[in-house]
Every structure is written in structure tokens, then in C-alpha cells.
Recover the amino acids of this structure.
């Protein structure tokens, strides 16, 4: 991928504007840091521009008012399909879906998707896991209050993502790094105790 691309820059601008009023959960860190990290992880592991752009945009449809049609119009079908695969269905018939149902849907989508979706999900989970470890080490078990479920369910969910990624990517370095991050999260959570 070239060092600079107008498509990549347009995706970064869209993500930055869409997430401009959002912060990372329980922090004062602008949310845009997360999709930028996801894109950087994908680039570091040699994935192409389409996937890096999807990394920048992976939470835009789920967490803002940007419709998937806009992603398709501006960035093409491939990016839109990747973003759609990463987008969690939060509501149905006007009601918020239970956490377990939403996460089961995401895991099923990972199971039935291809390796690019697995790489996108792995980069997302890797950054979230490493961020959670950092926050736990700095702030202690009170961090778990930010989440809908406690340590066990959260860690088990990341472990399930890791297993799904491993099934699609095999011994790829991204899968290995995610496995290590989940193991580190489990160790740190045990050391600091429950929230």
C-alpha cells in the first residue's frame, strides 16, 4: 500500500467526523484512536488497503448515524461488506438486544465469514484487549464496571473471538498475538481480582 492514499485519507476523515463526539469507554481518550489502531494493526500485518480502510470504518455504522449505503457509495462493495460483517446488531423491534445474543451473532458471523473478516475482528479485539489490560493495570478492577458483563464473560468472549480467528487464519501472526493478549488479560484479571 502506498504511504498515502486519497481513499484512506477520506476514510480517516469520515471516521474522525463520525466519532468526533465519542470517547473510549470510561476514558477521556477520543474514540477515533481505536479505529486508527485497528487500521495500523492490519497494515502492520501486511493486509491491503481495503481492509485497512474497513478498519478505520468498522464502528462507524454500529456507533454513529452513518448508513452502510454511504460506506458502499464512497468506498465500494468490498469495504462495505467488511464493515457490515463487523457491525453488531444492537436493537431489534425497538428493543435493545441482550449482550449474549449480540455477541453470539458476532461469533457466528466470524465463523461463517472469510479470513478478511477474521483479520478485521482480530485487530479490533487485539486493540480492545490490550487497552483493557492497560486500564486494569492503571485503574484496577473498577474498570469492569464499564462493561455490561464482568471479567469472566468478557474474557471468555475475547477467547472465543481468538478461537474463531485461529480457525480462519491458522498460525498467522495476528492470531498468535491475539491469543497472547487474551492470555495476558486473563492473567492480569486474576492478579487484580474481581471488580
Amino acid at each position: 500500500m502506498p504511504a498515502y492514499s486519497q481513499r484512506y485519507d477520506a476514510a480517516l476523515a469520515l471516521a474522525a467526523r463520525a466519532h468526533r463526539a465519542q470517547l473510549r469507554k470510561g476514558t477521556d481518550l477520543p474514540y477515533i484512536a481505536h479505529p486508527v489502531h485497528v487500521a495500523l494493526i492490519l497494515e502492520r500485518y501486511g493486509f491491503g488497503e481495503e481492509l485497512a480502510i474497513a478498519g478505520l470504518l468498522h464502528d462507524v455504522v454500529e456507533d454513529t448515524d452513518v448508513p452502510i449505503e454511504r460506506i458502499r457509495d464512497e468506498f465500494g462493495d468490498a469495504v462495505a461488506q467488511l464493515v457490515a460483517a463487523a457491525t453488531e446488531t444492537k436493537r431489534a423491534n425497538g428493543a435493545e438486544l441482550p449482550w449474549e445474543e449480540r455477541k453470539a451473532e458476532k461469533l457466528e458471523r466470524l465463523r461463517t465469514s472469510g479470513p478478511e473478516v477474521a483479520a478485521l475482528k482480530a485487530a479490533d479485539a487485539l486493540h480492545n484487549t490490550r487497552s483493557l489490560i492497560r486500564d486494569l493495570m492503571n485503574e484496577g478492577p473498577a474498570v469492569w464496571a464499564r462493561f455490561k458483563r464482568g471479567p469472566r464473560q468478557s474474557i471468555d468472549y475475547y477467547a472465543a473471538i481468538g478461537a474463531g480467528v485461529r480457525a480462519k487464519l491458522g498460525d498467522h501472526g495476528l492470531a498468535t498475538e491475539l491469543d497472547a493478549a487474551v492470555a495476558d488479560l486473563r492473567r492480569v484479571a486474576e492478579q487484580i481480582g474481581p471488580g
Q: What stands out?
A: The beta strands are 91-92, 95-96. The longest strand covers residues 91-92.
